[in-house]
Structure to design on (385 residues):
């Protein structure tokens, strides 16, 4: 028998509320987890998602499902960031769920992240986020080589959003979150301060320009271009930019982090696939005498047998990287529950909450016209005051 019972919560009635990025199938290849049920208010979509996930039962009301099923694990596959999503998380924790998988980012503002983190900590629940980065075995291989000193110390991390039609604040929220979280992974630290610039239609954004986000229900947002800088206590400087990239057709290859080590530049782009290349010098100016850009890993590379993603590597190389990523994240949650520990090979609650500050902080810095310490003192939506 499976050791853990899981349920999935989706909401197909409001725009982007379906099972985002296939999260309803997080445990479909995990023998330790039985998917007991799925809840979605939409009758038509509920049947579809339940069939795809293999859920044994389906509900219209997730609260009824939680009461009936008494699950160990809940997957919150909701791709919007309003107070209703926060309440869903709080309801899951109150129902006694021991482990949660939730779509990234944790929240749209630090105050919401605080509520969620406090509830989980009080209950002793473990939480993993669907951030793409540290769960990826190829990205972890970069970290292994960096930690053994292959390229010297890390000096700078440059992170990029997709820069497609969502360029700016929306890009930072739903896509930049992956790269800011990855920045934390490679620096082994939380940022100490930030500053930022936000433009809308070529002019500095002001609170009066903000409009309610209709795409992700994240509240008032503003800015079609963002540039942010972060200082880390270990001396690393990080930056994040979301600017229009061409016509947006190659936006997936803009999304990523460029890692500037003393003796190499390493790119980690297009996650969760992770296109990783290395330039063998600490800058990227043309220097034929020192070499050229090259893939970090050979085509036949495989993760070590003890790597947490090894059981799902076949899915990764077959082109189903998102599903492989989800399964790896879910497997890490199972290990956390067994070993009573915080996540290591997936984004956990602490670093996910810090990521929310990294998303919001530069926007508040822009509005206040000064560098801000992190964590932020003001915890609400910066566009509301």
């Amino acid at each position: 028998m499976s050791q853990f019972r899981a349920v999935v919560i989706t909401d197909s009635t409001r725009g982007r509320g379906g099972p985002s990025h296939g999260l309803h199938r997080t445990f479909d290849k995990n023998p330790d987890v039985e998917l007991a049920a799925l809840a979605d208010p939409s009758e038509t979509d509920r049947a579809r998602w339940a069939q795809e996930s293999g859920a044994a039962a389906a509900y219209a009301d997730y609260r009824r499902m939680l009461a009936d099923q008494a699950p160990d694990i809940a997957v919150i596959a909701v791709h919007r960031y309003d107070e209703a999503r926060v309440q869903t998380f709080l309801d899951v924790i109150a129902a006694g769920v021991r482990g949660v998988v939730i779509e990234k980012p944790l929240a749209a503002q630090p105050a919401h992240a605080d509520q969620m983190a406090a509830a989980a900590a009080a209950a002793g629940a473990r939480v993993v986020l669907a951030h793409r980065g540290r769960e990826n075995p190829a990205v972890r291989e970069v970290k292994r080589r960096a930690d053994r000193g292959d390229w010297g110390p890390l000096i700078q991390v440059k992170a990029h959003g997709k820069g497609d039609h969502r360029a700016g604040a929306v890009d930072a929220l739903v896509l930049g979150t992956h790269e800011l979280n990855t920045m934390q992974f490679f620096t082994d630290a939380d940022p100490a301060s930030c500053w930022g610039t936000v433009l809308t239609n070529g002019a500095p954004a002001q609170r009066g320009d903000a409009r309610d986000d209709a795409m992700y229900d994240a509240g008032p947002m503003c800015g079609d271009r963002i540039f942010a800088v972060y200082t880390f206590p270990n001396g690393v400087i990080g930056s994040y930019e979301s600017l229009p990239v061409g016509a947006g057709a190659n936006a997936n290859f803009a999304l990523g982090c460029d890692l500037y080590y003393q003796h190499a530049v390493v790119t980690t782009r297009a996650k969760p696939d992770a296109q990783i290349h290395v330039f063998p010098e600490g800058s990227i100016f043309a220097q034929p005498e020192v070499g050229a850009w090259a893939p970090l890993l050979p085509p036949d590379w495989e993760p070590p047998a003890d790597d947490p993603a090894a059981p799902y590597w076949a899915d990764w190389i077959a082109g189903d990287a998102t599903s492989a990523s989800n399964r790896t994240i879910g497997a890490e949650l199972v290990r956390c529950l067994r070993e009573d520990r915080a996540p290591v090979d997936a984004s956990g609650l602490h670093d996910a909450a810090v990521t929310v500050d990294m998303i919001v902080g530069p926007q508040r810095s822009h509005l206040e016209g000064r560098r801000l310490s992190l964590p932020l003192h003001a915890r609400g939506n910066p566009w509301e005051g």
Observations:
- The chain has a mean pLDDT of 92.
- The chain has two domains: 4-130, 137-308.
- DSSP finds ten helices and 19 strands in the chain.
- The domain at 4-130 is CATH 3.40.50.720 (Rossmann fold).
